[in-house]
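Troubleshooting log. The previous structure file for this entry was overwritten by mistake, so regenerating from the original sequence record. Sequence copied from the archived sheet and checked twice against the printout by T.R.
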Amino acid sequence: MKLHASRFLAAALLALVGWLLLSGAAGPSKRPPLKPDKLVILSTTDVKGKTSPCG
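Regenerated output below.
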């Protein structure tokens, strides 16, 4: 019976920690975006991995 109680306690604690993390992340951000007018290019290759203009 102690095994079931400890598993239930561990699951409840994990659920509580997850709920706290998600509830804190769901709120609106207090600070403005850093550079909303900047464009960041993450990759210069096309789908096939080529870097030439026509792929």
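The mean pLDDT is 76. Archived copy saved in two places this time.
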